[in-house]
Design goal:
It is built from three helices and four strands; from the N terminus they run αβββαβα. With 109 residues, the chain is an alpha+beta fold. Helix 2 links the parallel strand 3 and strand 4. The longest helix is centred in the middle third of the chain and has 18 residues. The protein is globular.
Length: 109
């Protein structure tokens, strides 16, 4: 249930639909394989916004965990969760709440 290839990420970014939160942006587009799978997730965490690898890995791990818990309720979209603000001093709870709020604001198609 993940996006792996560059083409998959490019198609989501090219669709140009995004929901923005305080720390993250959630890009989405309708899933090409809607019949066989539900939502799929890709993560983008730039070094510019999270300098240490430990922090980048933490953000990605939390994103996958929030997605895993909410996946049954999500529409069949390809999603890319992208870090959009520095999170060095942000609490884990605030990041989780921002991610969950973004997933909740997706349109129900």
């Amino acid at each position: 249930m993940r996006l792996h290839k560059t083409d998959e990420f490019s198609s989501v970014f090219a669709f140009r639909r995004v929901v923005r939160g305080r720390y993250f942006a959630l890009h989405y587009c309708p899933n090409a394989a809607q019949t066989q799978s539900g939502a799929r997730l890709g993560l983008v965490v730039a070094k510019k916004l999270a300098k240490r690898a430990v922090l980048r890995n933490l953000v990605k791990r939390m994103g996958r965990d929030v997605f895993r818990h909410l996946q049954p309720e999500l529409p069949p979209f390809d999603l890319v969760l992208r870090l959009s603000a520095p999170v060095a001093t942000v609490t884990k709870r605030a990041m989780r709440e921002d991610m969950a709020a973004l997933f909740g604001r997706l349109p129900n198609k």
